[in-house]
Amino acid sequence: MLRDLMESSEGAGAAAQETMPPVQATVPDWGLFRLIWSDYRFTYRYAGDDMRRSMILFLPRMLLSPSLQFGLLVRLCQRGPGWLARIIAYFQVMIFSSEVFAFHQGPGIALGGAIAFPHPYGVMIGPGTVIGSRVSIYHHTMIGTDRRWFPGEQLRPPVIGDDVVVGGASRVLGPYKVGEGVVIGLNVFVREDLPPMSTLLLS
To answer: pTM for the whole thing?
Structure first.
């Protein structure tokens, strides 16, 4: 009986995934400094700065903004060698209680440009996750597979499209597709695919 229920639920989930259009998750092949600059400009997109003012304020803002500092650590893991990612992971955990470093483990993390971590504490992103560009990820968020992964086993990670907001204390765990422009509210557990431009406030 339990097996029949599991098979029927898996079939329903597969049918839902077939009707979901492909998620546009833009992951450009940019270098380290261009990725850092895109994060910086996206974080301060509402400041109304021109290019000259942005360049003048880059260093002071980097020194005073935990969001930019955590983003820098994430990008160093993304574009640096695997051994460096392991060292940086220690600082991520000690300073921010976060772990976004598995870019060189298994299929790794695919992370687009212009990512913002407004409150970069308790953020967990696991290997295999695909996240597009212009995405805001808030505090105490978990994004990744829905089970512990061992080398050689199949992953079940999510795909998060462009221009998505993931609210604080939310979970996106499993092979779910989050379409472009989706807003995920606070303390939400995503249990299904989310179509583009939708809002999920209750799980």
So the answer is: 0.87
